[in-house]
Amino acid sequence: MKISKKTLSIILFVLAGICVLAAVILLVKGRIEDRRMEEALDELRPTQSAETTQAPSTVEGEPTVTVSPEPSTEETPASTEEFERVANPYADSFLANKDMAAWLQIPGTNIDYPVMWTPEDETYYLYRAFDGSENKNGCLLLDDESCVDPLTTNLIIHGHNMKSGAMFGNLTDYENQDFYKEHKNIILYTEECQRNYEIIAVFRSQVYRKTDQVFKFYKFFQADTQEEFDDFYNNIKQLSQYDTGVTAEFGDHFLTLSTCVYHVEQGRFVVVAKEVEPGDHYLPIQE
Fold first, then answer.
1. Taking the model in full, what pTM does it have?
2. Is 263 annotated in the active site?
3. Which helix (H) or strand (E) segment is 154 a member of?
4. Number of H helices and number of E strands within the chain?
5. Whole-number Å distance between alpha carbons of 193 and 103
6. CB of 205 within 8 A of CB of 268?
7. Nearest-CA neighbor of 44 among 75, 106, 90, 12?
């Protein structure tokens, strides 16, 4: 059966309209999903801005406990070190989902999210929200070979590079050195304490083949020797797009943020930070 040009044009017009309508529906659905995710996360975020919690603080109604060193029978110089334990600002979030390993925040940016850890299935939250529901943004994921307790030398956190800017969608802003200068610090809130970091290197890399004999940032989790530490440290400093002026030495701990970029196949954009002065230590979370 021969189809006239007019009929064919109508069919193509209708198909194009259906495609446009489908695209609009998907866009609206995505924005609704993003809004619901943000509303859910807002309920988990403490009312007090984390930027003001650099110094020890307390939560109303919770006691402050001063912890002193345990007495020692050995003849060592007396220690005057002591610290206060305060209520964990993310206690409700830890209680709401046992898979939450920490809460990550970069002050002055939109990166302010829970970090999930499911070593038995590392990708469980890849396309799931904090409550386990389906969500294209997924959650930030702590690599299954990283651990906050006991703390590994390097904590690697993966996150989607979302066009909306959600998760690590704006992490590549660190390619701009001026942006780095205004957002040098990263905070990780664990059950035990607040860990403060300062960015030490920013670079592009990729996931290589297993047989490639190259530096693989995503394979470094623990440095038990000076040689293991130096291999990681020297490589990230050489790869860094600019000199941050921050140095590290054997015994320091790192936080590595990684997201997809597309300069090469399996490309990754990486921000590495070094742990600096400690923050608050927290009281045990009571159920």
1. 0.80
2. no
3. strand 154-158
4. 4, 10
5. 11
6. yes
7. 90
Q: Which residue among 147, 183, 253, 260 is the active-site one?
A: 260
Instruction: Give the model's confidence band at 31: pLDDT under 50 very low, under 70 low, under 90 confident, else very high.
Output: low
Q: Can you tell me whether residue 173 is helix, strand or coil?
A: helix
For residue 19, is pLDDT > 70?
A: no
Active-site option among 160, 183, 193, 253: 160
pLDDT tens digits for range 2-15: 667 677 677 777 77
- Say if residues 62 and 87 touch (Cβ distance below 8 Å): yes
CB 142 within 8 A of CB 156: yes
* Selection from 163, 15, 44 nearest residue 105 by Cα: 44
The 3-state DSSP class for residue 107 equals coil
For 85, counting Cβ atoms within 10 Å of its Cβ (0-12 exposed, 13-18 middle, 19+ buried), the class is buried
Locate 125 and state its tokens.
Answer: 């939250």
User: What does DSSP assign to residue 263?
Assistant: S
Integer Cα distance of 275 and 205 in angstroms? 22
Cβ pair 59, 65 in contact under 8 A: no
Distance (Å, whole) CA 161 – CA 170: 7
Residue 234 contacts residue 220 (beta carbons within 8 Å):
no
Active site residue 260: yes
Please give the pLDDT value at position 63. Answer: 45
